[in-house]
Model the fold of this input.
Amino acid sequence: MKKFFAIVISIVIAAVFIGTGVFLYLKSQEKPVIYATEKPMRTDIVKKTVATGKIIPRKEVEIKSQVSGVVERIFVEAGQAINKGDLIARIQIIPNMERLNAAESKMETARLRYENAKRELERQTQLFEDRLISEFEYNKYLHEFDLQAETLQSSESNLAIIREGASKKAGKVSNLVHATLTGLILDIPVKEGTFVTETNTFNAGTSIASIANMQDMIFQGTVDEAEVGKIHVGMALLLNIGAMEEEPFIAELEYISPKGWDDQGTIKFQIRAAVSLQNDRFLRAGYSANADIVLDKREQVLAINERLLIFEGDEILVEVESTPQVFQKQKVKTGLSNGIHIEILEGINADTRLKTPK
Done:
């Protein structure tokens, strides 16, 4: 029995030695790890921030009616170019009965006073011609007649405006809506037959059309508080418009809001930039856009990929190849970074080969 156990132990020990030998042999046959290397490059490094916003006209106005009534006819359509003073629409006036009755009563009163002043003037004229009254006394009746004639004319004009929208004295028609700006019609929110209200002190009135100068466009967007201190008026912006995949538009920053607002826990500041238009590309109002704002730039500087950097405490290092596949750490001084590449100021040159981490 003891002899049997001795044989088993001998076999186990022999198996362990044989297995160890085989493992060490196979391990020695593995290929050594080969690390890839790369050299620094010469490139432009641009540090930028992105502002989101939209393209809008600098000058956009809403045309409103001066009278209440029903849209009788519309003479233009959205997308049509229009000049200042061109006719947009005609309103069929539906007079307010209370105002109409008051205007008719006022005109009738003015007519009665005018007739009375006219008869009195005729009587006084005869007396003046007979030298029974002085010229001073006669002029008082003449002045009163002129006042009543003016009051009657004003009452008639006011009644005509309420009834028809036409001013006899001024020769203007208030129920005709005209353009107040030369530009492009963006929208006509009403249709023929729509009831509209007039613009007055207590009511903004119904919009008949919106007109904008499409030759003067701006980018209006927002930036975070972390970036607003790095930008200033006059900086160049590259506008990437989602609906237009060609080259970006150029814009110049002209306004930064002095006050921000809270947007879901983040303070935002409004910015505005003048867009440089291109003759062969038409910008539509309301396009969404992203603006790349260049904060800093370096041209054709020595740079490496940021993934090659090693951070140990306050030191920034790279692994430099001294001999083939033999690397040693080298301290470097860095400059501007765009998040992918970083500028190298000191420590290596253009011929240095750097270890690429797996």
Notes: The CA atoms of residues 244 and 281 lie 9 Å apart. The domain at 37-44+299-355 is CATH 2.40.420.20 (conserved putative lor/sdh protein from methanococcus maripaludis s2 fold). The chain has a mean pLDDT of 84. The longest strand covers residues 288-305.
